[in-house]
């Protein structure tokens, strides 16, 4: 999955330097270390390239970043997501919500898939063991971005006099390459595009009780992080 938490980590990494390379692992690397990816490597490469703070994507990057990797790409240092080695946090609620998304998308149970990596199996086991009065399959995220967070994701550009303006709207749930292709086509017809995001209630009404998978605020940040976003 590529979500706004990744985009936020990338945004913070970009603030540490002038040029940002983002290494994206291959499907084989991810399956070996974590479990089967939701999106293919080609889809993930395109989605990461569409994040507005990314200058270059290194395809099939090694799972462990070494000094040799940094020297190969002439990098001064490496930034990494939340871990004992990192000071770049994801937004509050992203990681917990990602676990909920994985289950609701129908990811396989660890007990029936011996081929999954021990890391992935252990992660699923800990989620299940931690559940008490609330099921891990129906857990929801109460993440609400602040005005500052929205400002960090937005460029704040207003339309210029005489610009051709278009309006589009949608749910933009689980932001993916199809959304990127759609927005690129919109920009081929107008120089400024206003994007409307449907509320959770509207999406729920038309799509069913299990939708949207991401909250409206998460979907807004996903769109704002996209390079073709107008705001």
TrEMBL record:
EC number of the protein: 2.7.7.14
Every Cytidyltransferase-like domain range: 1-90, 168-226
CC per GO annotation: cytoplasm
GO molecular function: ethanolamine-phosphate cytidylyltransferase activity
Annotated pathway: Lipid metabolism; Phospholipid metabolism; phosphatidylethanolamine biosynthesis; phosphatidylethanolamine from ethanolamine: step 2/3
Keywords assigned by UniProt, alphabetized: Lipid biosynthesis, Lipid metabolism, Nucleotidyltransferase, Phospholipid biosynthesis, Phospholipid metabolism, Transferase
Biological processes annotated in GO: phosphatidylethanolamine biosynthetic process
Gene3D superfamilies, per the entry: HUPs
Uppermost EC category: transferase
InterPro entries according to UniProt: Cyt_trans-like (IPR004821), Ect1/PCYT2 (IPR044608), Rossmann-like_a/b/a_fold (IPR014729)
Similarity comment text for this entry: Belongs to the cytidylyltransferase family.
Protein name: ethanolamine-phosphate cytidylyltransferase
